[in-house]
Backbone:
């Protein structure tokens, strides 16, 4: 399996609190992605990065921000968590846009109460 | 954006049976991947198959890019095959940065 570590693996938080999820890779891949998985919606792209400090929005980016200060780390921040952000969050990496394989981390289960 | 539809949404099999899962997509693709999400939630790469045919043990996949569909075949199914199977694609148009669009998945249940 690709060297992808997501932390934390589980988190319970309260509405209105900030939350940061971390994705760490040891593969030196250029591209990194954050997806969320919800029942009835499959996986949807939140944000992605195509290099250090290069990020852009995905399909469901409202309420989320990201940062990538070094190749190996991609952070997803919920500035003020809401119950609608209760979900399972997956990080993925790939080393070539479009035509290469994406590998997924184990996921982070987030509950916002 | 590109649309991905998977069928059937649910599939129940007896152990040993064969099955075919289908993925239709609405536009040309650079990337097509099949994943198995196991009961623990882990997404496992099965195939990277934007075109052609591949086989891995009891599983095989075929993508007919010109007709915009892909098929995943599972032969001699086992209870460990249970879970959700996802098809995901990267559209070929424009600058996609490898962003995957997922289908809704097929929930497979294999009974002993």
Residues:
């Amino acid at each position: 399996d690709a060297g992808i570590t997501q932390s934390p693996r589980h988190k319970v938080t309260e509405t209105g609190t900030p939350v940061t999820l971390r994705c760490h890779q040891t593969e030196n891949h250029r591209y990194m992605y954050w997806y969320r998985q919800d029942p009835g919606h499959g996986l949807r792209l939140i944000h992605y990065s195509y290099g250090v400090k290069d990020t852009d929005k995905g399909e469901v980016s409202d309420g989320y921000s990201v940062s990538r200060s070094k190749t190996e780390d991609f952070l997803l921040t919920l500035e003020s968590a809401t119950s609608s952000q209760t979900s399972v969050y997956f990080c993925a990496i790939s080393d070539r846009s479009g035509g290469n394989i994406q590998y997924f981390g184990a996921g982070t289960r987030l509950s916002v109460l | 954006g590109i649309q991905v539809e998977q069928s059937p949404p649910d599939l129940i099999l007896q152990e040993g049976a064969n099955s075919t899962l289908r993925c239709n997509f609405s536009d040309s693709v650079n990337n097509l991947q099949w994943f198995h999400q196991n009961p623990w939630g882990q997404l496992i790469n099965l195939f990277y198959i934007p075109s052609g045919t591949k086989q891995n043990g009891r599983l095989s996949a075929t993508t007919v890019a010109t007709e915009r569909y892909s098929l995943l075949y599972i032969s001699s199914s086992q209870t460990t095959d249970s879970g959700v199977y996802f098809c995901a694609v990267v559209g070929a148009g424009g600058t996609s940065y490898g962003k995957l669009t997922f289908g809704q998945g097929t929930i497979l249940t294999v009974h002993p």
Notes: Chain A has a mean pLDDT of 93. The longest strand of chain A covers residues 42-51.
